[in-house]
Amino acid sequence: MSKQTCCSQANSCMSSETTFSADDLDLSLDDKDNTASPLIVNSYSQVYLKTESERLLLVLPAEEEMVLNMPWSEVWQELKHRLQAREQSWQAGTAVSLLAKDQLLDVRQLQTIAETLSEVNLCLEKVCTSRRQTAVAAATAGYSVEQKAVDVTLNEPSEGKTQALSLADPLYLQNTVRSGVEVRHPGTVVVLGDLNPGGIIIAAGDIFIWGRLRGIAHAGAQGNRQSRILALQMEPTQLRIANVVARAPKVPPKSFESEIAYIASEGIRLSQASDFAKTHSFSEEVGGWADSPPTNNK
Amino acid sequence: MSRIIVVTSGKGGVGKTTVTSNLGAAIAQLGRTVALIDADFGLRNLDILLGLEERVVYTALDVLSGECRLAQALVKDKRIKGLVLLPAAQNRNKESVQPEQMKKITSALTKGYDYILIDSPAGIEMGFRNAIAAATEAIIVTTPEVAAVRDADRVIGLLEAEGIHNIRLIINRVRPEMVQTNKMMSVEDVLELLAVPLVGVIPDDEKVIVATNKGEPLVIAEDYSLPALSFTNIARRLEGEKVPFMDLMAEQNNILTRIRRIFGG
Ligand SMILES: Nc1ncnc2c1ncn2[C@@H]1O[C@H](COP(=O)(O)OP(=O)(O)OP(=O)(O)O)[C@@H](O)[C@H]1O
Ligand SMILES: [Mg+2]
Fold first, then answer.
1. Among the three residues A149, A173, A194, which one is the final residue of a domain in this structure?
2. Is A225 on the interface with B (CB under 8 A)?
3. Is A92's CB within 8 Å of B95's CB?
4. Which atom of ligand 1 is nearest to the CA of B40?
5. The pLDDT of residue B65 is above 70
6. Domain count along chain B
7. DSSP 8-state secondary structure symbol assigned to residue B54
8. DSSP bridge partners of A262
9. Are residues A78 and A117 in the same domain?
10. Using a CB-CB distance cutoff of 8 angstroms, which residues of chain B are in contact with residue A198?
11. Are residues A285 and A202 in the same domain?
12. How many CA atoms lie within 13 A of A74 on its CB side?
């Protein structure tokens, strides 16, 4: 839904490119497209800002929408110019989500974008992308990440059978997920570091934390009850698997074993991770993992 | 090469300005030249803590608007050789300065000072962005409280994203008796979570408040106190010395007697 809105906006921008000058404000009230939110920056530039249900979005063109012969730096310069020329219509420090579509962005490019935004009092917070390299770069640079396979939306958990959904390649993060960072990925997430309190990982697949898990981890976010969450040290604020939520016990049991969280018949359970695979198997009837070694007839 | 260090925290009121003023004084006492920049535009109070309020004539904004030369705006601390303050404007808000302008001023200061300490405003908005724009190092100040540590964690993430990787931690307002009875996070708890190197621990001490109100940095007070020693130790650590951390957990009395012994008091 949001994706479609963006595309149609982008098109309308491009088709009207000659009618807007740098200082033009579109103040017309006859909104042809009432459902869409107003554009804050109307420019023939392909990069633009728009608001969508209280969020401020910076939309980049998809790879095939890029105007030929327009180098990236110029596209960027263009937006920079327009942003600064305009009277600001947002509050200082407003968070911006970057819709990068299938653009390949590295850490440097992301930082340029963040710098440009900060010059006009906007703050890059989240990067939505369908490219894995861009997701990794964004996470490395400390932004929240939402990676969408082109047609999969994490927000709409599918009913019933979930195996049919194909997962994206695992996302491998080599840094601690700190407070305020949210990572979304339509596949498995592996973190070589900690998940700190205030940090969130939402994955369609499994979540592996090679460190301490103290924030919120949501595995099987599209509804897969087989998903597991594993951490070297498990002290979560909250664990979610599919649509089951578990809060941390008030006094965390001091376990120095790595633990694994999974759905059992009574809800989310924690077990010692080292021999989970040998002692548990997934039961379709129960819709969870049972303490029985995997058998050959299943 | 001079060092440009931003003092920041995320959460407000945890002691950024206290650290900037006292640490600045402590570094200057070691014989270095230090410029303090108040980047808390609109809510300046670094000048008050340093007792320099009455001597402020020009501010950073006057420099930026060409109203005065940088040298004219710098307020020299007469008690401590080598320490100057660049005051922030009181009447303008945080949005009236741009990161580029902060960089310009800071780089001009590097020509005359060994250390440039920037006192950041609370929060992670524009004022914070300005404060970190020119910095190549950061000192994170936190108190051993869950909310402060959480904000510190967020700020560390933001600094890393901005390419500032030389980040060190000061834990302020530690109360050993509360840590002992498990009512407060311990230094280890905080360090374990934030995973950045510790540069100092400052006890919660009313002498800090007294010094603040007098406008007199702790290190020049006649009565050399435990928090003053903490600041001197941090200054020495910044200078690359290996100074062992005080054992705040030992009984208060013991520490004080030990310090007195060290300083011949
Ligand atoms: N170690 C300490 N012991 C006792 N009081 C302290 C200590 N450190 C700071 N304080 C007190 O805490 C208060 C807040 O300190 P300070 O103004 O330095 O914080 P800040 O982080 O700069 O605040 P702001 O975010 O508003 O700029 C002051 O009254 C100060 O005297
Ligand atoms: Mg302050």
1. A149
2. no
3. yes
4. 27
5. yes
6. 1
7. G
8. A269
9. yes
10. 150, 153-154
11. yes
12. 7
Q: How far is B161 from chain A (nearest CA, A)?
A: 4
- Among residues 149-188 of chain A, which lie with CB inside 8 Å of chain B? 175-176, 178-181
- Condensed to tens digits (0 to 9), the pLDDT of residues B202-228 reads 999 999 999 999 999 999 988 889 999
Tell me the pLDDT tens digit for each residue of A242-257.
989 988 766 666 667 8
CA distance A123 to chain B (A): 8
Residue B188 is encoded by which pair of tokens?
A: 């280890």
Same domain as A36, residue A19: no
What are the DSSP E strand ranges found in B101-145?
Answer: 115-119, 137-142
Nearest CA in chain B to A235: B193
CA of B49 to the centre of ligand 2 (A): 10
Are A79 and A165 within one domain?
no
Atom of ligand 1 nearest to the CA of B202: 1
CA B141, distance to chain mean position in Å, is 8
From residue A147, alpha-carbon distances to A101, A229, B158, B240 in Å are 9, 19, 20, 43
Residue B218 structural domain: 3-263
Residue A196's domain spans which residues? 1-30+153-298
* pLDDT surpassing 50 at residue A7: no
Last residue of a domain, one of A101, A118, A149: A149
Instruction: Please state the domain count of chain A.
Output: 2
CB environment B185-208: b (16+ within 10 A), e (fewer): bbbeebbebbbbebbbbbbbbeeb
Looking at the partner chain, which of A111, A178, A180 has a beta carbon nearest the beta carbon of B163? A111
* Beta carbons of A119 and B98 less than 8 Å apart: yes
Judged by CB atoms closer than 8 Å, whether chains meet at A178 and B156 is answered as: yes
Are A294 and A159 in the same domain?
A: yes
